[in-house]
């Protein structure tokens, strides 16, 4: 179970919780096993992720490769079908999948989704003034989140604070707020560590950059060496439309007395991220 969770970018706790069970179900789908199309609830699975990867490699933007068949993926599929002379019905059926199979060896190594995010970040403002940010608090660090909110607001940012233990609910709140960046701060029993969204064929350049800055600035406040955040597929990272980072801070007995210093370090990390939100490709 833990090996599967690690491979899927989930918390390796060895427990078949709701997120792990969902991932097991999604892993059973391969492109071509079923018709893929836009519906409610949206279809999820490895087959959707593979469809998104192939469309992106061909230059049709399906949004981030999250394995969720949403409106952006439907639009990319329809555009592909129209360009290929197929019925542009937005349904990934036998003909569309067969053509994608034939084209599989003729595409590049980087999809349009990652390029689009990097370009959007490159043209974004370089200061906090007027930027809309979302800070999530899944439980245990209310004082820290309030401190970060206060520091960012004083710098001119429009900050939305979201409080809920469920990652999908936090992601939905950040999406509804139309935030440019999402960061949630959680408590950890042992050490500081972070995660940004990554899946086969996609890695969030904005999320990875913020995680790296947090790794540089936050652990030293607690006397820890620089962290090493990793790409994961946690719900709060997968379901947010903007660059997102989940950052855990600990241990509690060290962190609690230093909450003002930690709030300053986190706000400095976000300020630096605004100045350079993604490294060069």
Compose a concise summary of this entry:
With 281 residues, this protein is an alpha/beta fold. Helix content is 44%, strand content 13%.
What does this structure look like?
With 281 residues, the chain is an alpha/beta fold. It folds into two domains: 2-119, Muramoyl-pentapeptide Carboxypeptidase, domain 1, CATH 1.10.101.10; 125-275, Zn-dependent exopeptidases (Aminopeptidase), CATH 3.40.630.40. The protein is 44% helix and 13% strand. The protein is built from twelve helices and seven strands. The chain has helices spanning 2-7, 18-27, 46-57, 71-84, 94-103, 112-122, 142-154, 167-176, 205-217, 235-238, 252-255, 259-275, and strands at residues 132-137, 158-163, 181-187, 193-199, 202-203, 230-232, 244-249. Strands 1, 2, 3, 4, 5, 6 and 7 form a seven-stranded mixed beta sheet that branches. It is globular and about 60 Å long. The two termini are 35 Å apart. 44% of the residues are buried. The mean pLDDT is 93.
């Amino acid at each position: 179970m833990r090996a599967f969770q690690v491979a899927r970018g989930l918390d390796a706790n060895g427990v078949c919780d709701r997120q792990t069970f969902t991932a097991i179900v999604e892993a059973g789908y391969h492109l071509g096993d079923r018709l893929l199309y836009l519906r409610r609830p949206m279809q999820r699975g490895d087959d959707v992720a593979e469809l998104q990867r192939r469309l992106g490699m061909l230059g049709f933007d399906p949004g981030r490769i999250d394995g969720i068949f949403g409106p952006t993926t439907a639009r990319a599929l329809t555009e592909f079908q129209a360009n290929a002379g197929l019925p542009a019905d937005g349904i990934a059926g036998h003909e569309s999948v067969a053509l994608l199979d034939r084209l599989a060896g003729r595409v590049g190594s980087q999809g349009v989704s990652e390029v689009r995010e990097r370009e959007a970040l490159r043209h974004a403002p370089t200061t906090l003034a007027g930027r809309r940010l979302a800070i999530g608090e899944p439980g245990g660090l209310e004082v820290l989140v309030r401190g970060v909110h206060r520091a960012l607001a004083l710098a001119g940012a429009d900050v939305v604070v979201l409080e809920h233990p469920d990652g999908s609910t936090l992601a939905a709140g950040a999406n509804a707020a139309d935030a440019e960046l999402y960061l949630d701060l959680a408590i950890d029993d042992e050490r500081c560590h972070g995660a940004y969204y990554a899946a086969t064929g996609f890695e969030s350049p904005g999320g990875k950059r913020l995680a790296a800055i947090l790794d540089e600035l936050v652990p030293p406040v607690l006397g820890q060496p620089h962290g090493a955040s990793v790409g994961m597929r946690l719900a709060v990272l997968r379901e947010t439309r903007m660059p997102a980072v989940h950052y855990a801070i600990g241990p509690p007995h060290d962190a609690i007395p230093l909450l003002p210093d930690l709030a300053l370090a986190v706000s400095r990390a976000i300020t630096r991220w605004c100045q350079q939100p993604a490294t060069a490709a």
